[in-house]
Every structure is written in structure tokens, then in C-alpha cells.
């Protein structure tokens, strides 16, 4: 039996890409997973794609809307129980990646989803984790949360740096309370977010970079570690990508 059997998991951004990949492996490991995103259809497709393991629950959430976040986590608490593992994978980028192109509303929108959304989701699950002295929080940040890379753009990098600081600061606050926070920094991953790049990405490039299941394997490994072991942060990049 998997050490993760019966663990209650919430994944934002679980309808596509990295979140969907993580949902599949954790469900296969016996976790009771609820995935959320704004669109119900992709969530349902992921739930239907499960071959073996525990069924995946779906529930819409808009992490830019505080009331929607509250409703999502109330539903999980009331229907399944307190969250053991939270994965913050909901995230966006915009095509306007420079100061010359973007406007303040772009800044607000990205920060609201990538930074404030992650904070509010953690706010919902942390008190119960602290009380039980057990819990894992996985923040899907980005290499853009470690280096302000041009490819990511101004506000995306700023939002991912915010997520980085959020995860590290919380991690330090709760290290004596059994709660472990991991910031994951992926390089390029072949997911729908690439469709929003200012320049189209070739199929050849998509095939050569990371795939969602690569991040999922990593997250599974982190979740399976015993409570004494904590991975504060981890970078994963395509072999072909430079790390400078
Ligand atoms: N792909 C990469 O190269 C890469 C690299 C490093 C980090 N990341 C990060 O990985 C995370 C997952 O992205 P991905 O690559 O898997 O791309 P993706 O497939 O576009 O996934 C993003 C998910 O977030 C959800 N989402 C967006 N806005 C939301 C909102 N307001 N409320 C709730 N859910 C929302 C989307 O679903 P709905 O549209 O249905 O809401 C979607 O399922 C993101 O945080 C991204 O920044 C990606």
C-alpha cells in the first residue's frame, strides 16, 4: 500500500498541464484528489482519464476571486476532510512581457492569480495543517521565480518571485509545526501555457522540453518522503536548457 493512500489533496490549475499531471500520479498513489480551475470541462476530462487509482473530484475555482477560493476549500473540508497536500499550480502569463507593452491592469491580473491566489489557498489549509502537525504544500513557481528572465516577462517574473518568497517565509514559520512547503522551479514544460507566448513554439521544441509527467514524478517523490525530510526548493529544467 502506498504511503499516500487516503491522503486528501487539493490541486489548483488541475485541469491541464502540470496540475493535471500531478493529479494523475497522486490519484494513482491512492490520494483523494480534488482538482480546480475556472473551466469545468478540462477538469472533467482529467477525472475521466484516470485509469485505476482513486477517482478524482472536480470543483471550479477562480483563484483571483477570494469568495471562490473560500467555497472551493469549504467544499473539500465538508465533503472529504482537511487537506493533507495542497498543490498551487494555477498560473497565467500574458503576451505583453515588457514594461513598454504592459499596462497596470496586466500587472494586477497576473499578480492576483499567481501570487495572491497562491497565498489565499495556503491561508485556507494552513491552520488545520498546523493543528495536526502535518501537511505538505507544493508551490509550482518557475525558474522565472529565481531569475528575472526575459522569456518570462516583467510581471510573470515578479509574481513568481513573490511565490518563492511566500513559500520560503511560510516554510520557515511552520518548520517546527510539521508542515513542509516546497517551491518547485520548472524550466520550460510542454503545456497549454506555451500557447500564450509572444512567439509560437515549434513542435520540435515542445517535444524536447520537460513534459508534465516529469514534474509529476518529482512532486510524487517529495510527497512520499517521511515527515522528517523536507525539500524547501528544487529546480527542474529540460536537459537542453541552460542554467545560469
Ligand atoms: N509550462 C511551463 O513552461 C512552466 C514553467 C514553469 C512554471 N510553470 C507554472 O506551472 C503552473 C501550471 O502551468 P502549466 O504550465 O501547467 O500551464 P496550463 O496548462 O496553462 O495550466 C495553468 C492552469 O491554471 C488554471 N488557471 C488559470 N487561471 C486561473 C484562475 N484564475 N483560477 C483558477 N485556475 C486558473 C488554468 O485553468 P483554467 O483556465 O480553466 O482556469 C490551467 O489549468 C503555472 O503556475 C505556471 O506558471 C509553467
TrEMBL record:
UniProt-recorded name of the protein: Putative oxidoreductase
Sorted UniProt keywords: Oxidoreductase
GO cellular component, one term: membrane
InterPro entries: KR_dom, NAD(P)-bd_dom_sf, Sc_DH/Rdtase_CS, SDR_fam
Lineage top rank: taxon: Bacteria
SMART domains: PKS_KR
Recorded GO MF terms: oxidoreductase activity, acting on the CH-OH group of donors, NAD or NADP as acceptor
Family named by the database record: Belongs to the short-chain dehydrogenases/reductases (SDR) family.
EC code: 1.-.-.-
Residue ranges of every copy of the Ketoreductase domain listed in the record: 7-175
